[in-house]
């Protein structure tokens, strides 16, 4: 089935934190409209740019088989949609299921240009978990009193960290602990004894978030457009770009309870405030004057963050088989600071335009040293500017090892790969040992994800099959790190059969 939607991008006045400002929105909504589809559907989005700036839209977690022309990252797969122009994006779904999302992929526009993409099974309620009474999208975001364009230009101009946001948000609202916000706090009304599926998206720009519902446990049942084995916890750690589907049962004394979120952060400045929503039980009772607030892990509790994600497991059953990925490619960003070209790499590749990119991205780091030492000498800080890609043979099996470093300061990196989902086969702290660590890989039921947080001063190993011809970006989903060039590009070559070749571009493809 094909769904058609108009996305009108325009500046819209909004009021938060006792003040007004104009923000970039889709169809005047913040967060933007939720798109509902069935597994295997196609979406056609007519993106109409009525704003004053360029825009692109990325469908995060959608593999877009053989059709990277609508993937969205600016100057990677397309030139931006200029003010006063439009672009019909064809979004091709394949095996994705559950919660994904869409967001701008140009400058820092995704701060306000984002929304949920819900992919239902072909048969109604055909879930590998108990059928919920209701399903609710929950989008974590943030708000700057300043214009986000000013935040970006100041940050790029001074070379330091960007100014932190003034509030975090749940479904567009800051919550009870911020000024001028209590009356608009997001509220979820529930019935005692019923089960609810919350579809959570972290649209925050630069922070992993801890999330809890006071006095309730939750059960994770999916992440990044794939089902998982049930995982019960009293908190969530969710990376920017990641989605997590979880069940919670309204099985406590009917009352009001806070669902709240705050930062997990280990380096640099960060917004240490707490955003909140209220879970309201239906019934006759006297609500508390102040609902209970959950207690969180410490701001810098690396183990709490990494251990939560490390517990994810695929279903790994006959309906959700694990594919074998046996060959090896060791890579990280490897000391190359990515430089955006002025012609989209996909267009240059397809039309064989020379001089736009190089194909010499290294398979191994050019310098070997103790990446997680307490002190790393400055003479080892040697990034080089470049626009290098890594070319992959069609259907080749790829392993990447993301190695975090303590250069400047150790921090978690939520790495996102376009055009593919990948299996997370291993992770650990310290330096990756290629002789010892692969022995302990999980090759039985590794989680299938498209975004994974590499733990602070640690490593994560992923595997995927290069079975999607085209140009595909890989980057850290902390927006400030993208701005600093923490990204690279894979080009997957065509296969031999007609259904293994890159499809041609659409007629209205944006031009630079």
UniProtKB/TrEMBL annotation:
Task: Give the chief site where it resides.
Answer: secreted
Q: Which PROSITE patterns does the record associate with it? A: MULTICOPPER_OXIDASE1, MULTICOPPER_OXIDASE2
**Residue ranges annotated for the Plastocyanin-like domain, each copy included:** 10-123, 135-284, 361-495
Q: Which reaction does it catalyse?
A: 4 hydroquinone + O2 = 4 benzosemiquinone + 2 H2O
Keywords (alphabetical) are: Apoplast, Copper, Glycoprotein, Lignin degradation, Metal-binding, Oxidoreductase, Repeat, Secreted
Q: Where in the cell is it found?
A: Secreted, Extracellular space, Apoplast
Q: What EC number(s) is this enzyme filed under?
A: 1.10.3.2
Protein name as it appears in the record? laccase
């Amino acid at each position: 089935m094909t769904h058609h939607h108009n996305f009108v991008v325009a500046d819209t006045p909004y009021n938060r934190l006792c003040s007004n400002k104009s923000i970039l929105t889709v169809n005047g909504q913040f967060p933007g409209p939720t798109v509902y589809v069935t597994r295997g559907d196609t979406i056609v989005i007519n993106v109409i740019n009525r704003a004053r700036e360029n825009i692109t839209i990325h469908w995060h977690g959608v593999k877009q088989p053989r059709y990277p022309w609508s993937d969205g990252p600016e100057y990677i797969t397309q030139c931006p949609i200029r003010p006063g122009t439009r672009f019909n994006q064809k979004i091709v779904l394949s095996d994705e299921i559950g919660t994904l999302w869409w967001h701008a992929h140009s400058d820092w526009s995704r701060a306000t240009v984002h929304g949920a993409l819900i992919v239902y099974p072909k048969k109604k309620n055909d879930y590998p978990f108990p059928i919920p009474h209701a399903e609710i999208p929950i989008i974590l975001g943030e708000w700057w009193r300043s214009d986000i364009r000013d935040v970006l230009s100041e940050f790029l101009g001074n070379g330091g960290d960007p100014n932190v946001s003034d509030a975090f948000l749940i479904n567009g609202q800051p919550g009870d602990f911020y000024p001028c916000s209590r009356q608009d706090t997001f509220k979820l009304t529930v019935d005692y004894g019923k089960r609810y599926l919350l579809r959570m998206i972290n649209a925050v720009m630069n922070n992993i978030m801890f999330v809890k519902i006071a006095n309730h446990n939750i059960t994770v049942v999916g992440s990044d457009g794939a089902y998982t084995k049930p995982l019960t916890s009293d908190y969530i750690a969710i990376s920017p770009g990641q989605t997590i589907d979880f069940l919670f049962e309204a099985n406590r004394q009917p009352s009001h309870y806070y669902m709240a979120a705050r930062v997990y952060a280990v380096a640099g400045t960060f917004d240490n405030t707490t955003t909140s929503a209220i879970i309201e039980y239906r019934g006759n009772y006297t609500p508390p004057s102040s609902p209970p607030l959950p207690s969180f892990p410490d701001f810098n509790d690396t183990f709490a963050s990494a251990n939560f994600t490390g517990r994810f497991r695929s279903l790994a059953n006959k309906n959700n088989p694990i594919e074998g990925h046996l060959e090896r490619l060791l890579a990280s960003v490897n000391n190359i600071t990515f430089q955006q070209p002025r012609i989209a790499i996909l267009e240059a590749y397809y039309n064989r335009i020379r001089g736009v990119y190089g194909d010499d991205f290294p398979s191994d780091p050019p310098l070997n040293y103790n990446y997680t030492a307490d002190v790393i000498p400055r003479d080892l800080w040697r990034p080089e500017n470049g626009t290098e890609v890594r070319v992959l043979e069609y259907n080749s099996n790829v392993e990447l090892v993301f190695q975090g470093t303590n250069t400047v300061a150790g921090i978690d990196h939520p790495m996102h790969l376009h055009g593919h989902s990948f299996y997370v086969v291993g992770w650990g702290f310290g330096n990756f040992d290629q002789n010892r660590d692969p022995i302990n890989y999980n090759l039985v039921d590794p989680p299938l994800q498209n975004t994974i947080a590499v733990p602070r001063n640690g490593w994560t190993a992923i595997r995927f099959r290069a079975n999607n011809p085209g140009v595909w970006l890989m980057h850290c989903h902390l927006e400030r790190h993208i701005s600093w060039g923490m990204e690279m590009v894979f080009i997957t070559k065509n296969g031999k059969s007609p259904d293994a070749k890159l499809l041609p571009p659409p007629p209205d493809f944006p031009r630079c």
